[in-house]
Structure formats: structure tokens, C-alpha cells
Design a protein that fits this description.
Strand order of the largest sheet: 1-2-3-6-7-8-9-10
CATH class: Alpha Beta
Number of helices: 11
Radius of gyration: 19 Å
Order of helices and strands: EHEHEEEHEHEHEHHEHHEHH
Structural class: alpha/beta
Length: 317
């Protein structure tokens, strides 16, 4: 896929106060800037800020014409009152802890989750609905089976257009990719410049079965988000070998006239099975920066050099 603004999706985990709080006005500014830059696809989830991201996205969507925007969300975590719980969410989101997440991939749970999400966003349907991290359920195999069956029923009722699984876990993604119900997988952090987990089995499986891929967490939670590697890898301290590999990637990118985050964004889109690249932003400037990166196509020789050095697998284009 050639990366364009039209193939970018704004992920909204940061709008749920991931790793730090932001105001409603700051969240609105991020969404407005994305729209002004031509982005028409938005991904969210109940998990993000215990519903805060969906609520903020919903306020932005009010009054928009049906069909003018694509929205995806996720099911598997019901939000329920949490009296006597911790004052703040114990997860990675800076929000009050007055709700708790209850894993539920049953048909009843899936339908309830979607209904709650639609209510929070003030819309009557979503384009894509994913099972969110089914591998974290007590019975992961059953969660995938019952969850995808429930999603297929919602698709037949035209409550959603596309269904699938969103996860960082290769096993969960492979299991879903084998299922005939699956239209699309959201692959988080496993198809990036520095993490090639999806390359060996998952992407070939998706090509074989006609399953689309939305690539997200392409900066691996920060490591690849700046010209010189910095930040975390998968929301934890990056191992030294991963940092060293990212530093060499940055060197080669610079030698080919581009920078590490631009290469990371475009690398995720090279495989034709990828139909969307999802990025997050905390400020309007970060939105514009990512849109500019999408418009700045790296020298194709970059991929050959990276492959020759063993820094990435042979690139499928």
C-alpha cells in the first residue's frame, strides 16, 4: 500500500489520557487538526481511559453526516461501577478509578459493549468492530470463538461492516486470521521496523485468506517516534539489544535522507495486505507531523539496504 493521508487512522488511546492527562479542549484540538489534515478514520475502545476516549470522540463526531467518517471500536471489556475501588485507574490511563473493566466475550457481553460504546459516542453504528485482546480472557480460545460469532451476527444485522481482532499477541491474531468470520486484524506493535513478529506467519496468512491488516503502535510506544531512538518499547524500558538495533536503523535512515519515524510509518504500509496505519497524537503539532511524514516517501533503496544488513526481512511490496 502506498501511504497517503487517506490510509491513516487516528488512534485515540492518548485521548483517554494514556500515560498522562489532557484536557477536553486539548483532545478536541487534536481531533479537529486531524480532520483539517484530511484524516477521516478514527479508532477507539472502551479500554482507553475507561470510556473517556469514546466520549471525547463522540463530542467531536456530533452533527457529522453519516458516511463522512469511519469509526472503529472494540469489545471484550465491559465498564462497570467500581465502588470502593482505587481513586485512579490502575492501568496506564490517568483517569478516576470509579469504573472497572470486566472481561466478557459472550454474545450478551459483546452486544452490551457495543451498545455502551454507541451511547458514549452518540452514533448508531461503527464501521469496524474488533475483539480486544481475547488472549487475556480466562478461556482465550472460547473468547475468540464466541466473540467472533457474536461479531458475525452484528455484521449480518448491519450494525457493523467489518469485524476482527485487535491485539499485540501473535497467537490471538493467528487464531483469528484462520477464522472465516474475520475481515480485518488490528496488529499492534508486531509489524514495525524493529519488531518483525508478524512477518513470518501472520502477514502471509492474511494475504492468503484475504484478511486486511490495520497496523498500529508502529512506533512501539515511543522508541521509533523520534529521529534518534528514545522512549519506551511496548510501554516498558527498551532492552539494550532493541535500542542498539533501533540506533542502527536510525543511522541507515539518515544516510538515505529520511528519519526514523518517517521510515517506521512507511515501513508498516509496504506490505499490500496493510490497508491502514494507525497513529496516536497528544498535540495538534504531532498530528501535522505524522501527516507530513506520510507525504514524505523514503528512497526505495532504503528498504533494500535495511534488508541487506539484516535489520528488516525481505520487504514484500
Amino acid at each position: 500500500m502506498t501511504l497517503t493521508t487517506g490510509s491513516l487512522t487516528l488512534g485515540t488511546a492518548t485521548l483517554g489520557n494514556l500515560l498522562g492527562a489532557m484536557s477536553d479542549a486539548e483532545a478536541q484540538a487534536v481531533l479537529e487538526t486531524a480532520w483539517e489534515c484530511g484524516i477521516r478514520s478514527f479508532d477507539t475502545a472502551p479500554h482507553y481511559g475507561l470510556g473517556l476516549a469514546e466520549e471525547r470522540l463522540g463530542r467531536f463526531l456530533r452533527g457529522m453526516q453519516p458516511g463522512s467518517v469511519r469509526v472503529s471500536t472494540k469489545v471484550g471489556r465491559l465498564l462497570r461501577p467500581n465502588p470502593g475501588g482505587p481513586p485512579r485507574d490502575p492501568d496506564l490511563f490517568d483517569v478516576p478509578g470509579d469504573l472497572t473493566r470486566v472481561m466478557d466475550f459472550s454474545e450478551t457481553g459483546v452486544r452490551a459493549s457495543l451498545a455502551d460504546s454507541l451511547d458514549r459516542m452518540g452514533i448508531d453504528r461503527v464501521d469496524t468492530l474488533y475483539l480486544h485482546d481475547p488472549e487475556k480472557a480466562p478461556d482465550a480460545e472460547s473468547a475468540c470463538d464466541t466473540g467472533l460469532s457474536a461479531l458475525a451476527a452484528l455484521r449480518s444485522e448491519r450494525m457493523v461492516t467489518r469485524i476482527g481482532v485487535g491485539s499485540m499477541d501473535e497467537g490471538a491474531l493467528l487464531a483469528a486470521g484462520e477464522r472465516e468470520e474475520t475481515d480485518e486484524l488490528m496488529v499492534a506493535g508486531r509489524h514495525t521496523l524493529v519488531d518483525h513478529t508478524a512477518t513470518v506467519r501472520l502477514l502471509p496468512l492474511c494475504r492468503e485468506r484475504g484478511v486486511a491488516v490495520a497496523a498500529t503502535a508502529v512506533y512501539n510506544s515511543g522508541l521509533l517516534a523520534t529521529p534518534r531512538p528514545s522512549g519506551t518499547f511496548d510501554y516498558a524500558v527498551a532492552p539494550p539489544d532493541v535500542v542498539a538495533r533501533a540506533q542502527r536503523l536510525a543511522d541507515v535512515c539518515e544516510a538515505h535522507g529520511t528519519d526514523l519515524p518517517t521510515a517506521a510509518l512507511h515501513y508498516a504500509a509496504l506490505d499490500p495486505v496493510v490497508t491502514s496505519v494507525v497513529f496516536g497524537a497528544r498535540t495538534p503539532a504531532q498530528v501535522r507531523e505524522n501527516v507530513e511524514r506520510a507525504a514524505s516517501t523514503p528512497d526505495p533503496a532504503l528498504w533494500d539496504t535495511l534488508a541487506a544488513e539484516g535489520l528488516v526481512p525481505e520487504v514484500v511490496r
